Amino acid sequence: GHSSGHIWDQTEFAWTARNGVALSLASTGPLLHPRSVVAIHDAAIFRIPDAFSWRYRAAHRLLGYALGKRARLVTVSEFSRNELADVLGVQPTDIAVAPNGHEHFSMLPSPDVVGRLGLYATPYFLMLGSLTRNKNLALAVQALNRLPQGLAKLVAVGNSKASVFGHLPLPESPDLIMAGRLD
Q1: What is d(CA 13, CA 33) in angstroms, rounded to the nearest whole number?
Q2: What is d(CA 96, CA 32) in angstroms, rounded to the nearest whole number?
Q3: pLDDT band at 135 (very low <50, low <70, confident <90, very high)
């Protein structure tokens, strides 16, 4: 398509899927599509609002409420189902549970990433996921700072985009590697 993000969801994706089911795996989907299935992974946008920028929070709350009324919702656990049902005002039975896959764990690490981050000869801890307050990266850095300097690295892999998550204040550490998004 020619657009991206929410505009793509609402226009090009909706049009392309007009004769079928629109399956959206990333918390958003076409609002006006009559047969839409949307995976919303958790209720963090509602339960931990200060972990997100106000624009992202406003947009995704509105989308969540609207999709809760229009789409078939799917989430990853019973806990998330109950949380989403509560915040969206729907019945838990209206939300299907489809656990996350695990197949990617059998993949070997990419040696170029390990080398690029200088980790071949260094023990390290790995944190995966978007770098929001609820992931407790600040607490992990505090724990890292209690170890002798240079003993191990903490590698944080994930999106830290301020326009989505706001500013995440972190303690300083020479052993912290903010790797950003990696494939």
Answers
A1: 10
A2: 20
A3: confident
Average pLDDT in the 141-161 region?
Answer: 90
**In the numeric block, which tokens belong to residue 91?**
């019945």
What is the C-alpha separation between 88 and 27, in angstroms, rounded? 13
**Long-range own/partner contacts, residues 139-147 (CB < 8 A, 24 or more apart):** 141/170, 141/171, 141/173, 141/176, 142/171, 144/173, 144/175, 144/176, 145/171, 145/173, 145/175, 147/175
Q: Name the pTM for this structure.
A: 0.66
Could you give the strand order of the β-sheet that contains 95-97, starting from the edge strand earlier in sequence?
A: 22-24, 36-39, 72-75, 95-97
HEC sequence for the chain: CCCCHHHHHHHHHHHHCCCCCEEECCCCCCCCCCCEEEECCCCHHHHCHHHCCHHHHHHHHHHHHHHHHHCEEEECCHHHHHHHHHHHCCCHHHEEECCCCCHHHHCCCCHHHHHHCCCCCCCEEEEECCCCHHHCHHHHHHHHCCCCCCCCEEEEECCCCHHHHCCCCCCCCCCEEEEECCC
Query: If you count them, how many residues does the chain have?
Result: 183
Please write the tens of the pLDDT for every residue from 111-130.
688 888 988 889 999 988 77
Q: Is the pLDDT of residue 182 over 70?
A: yes
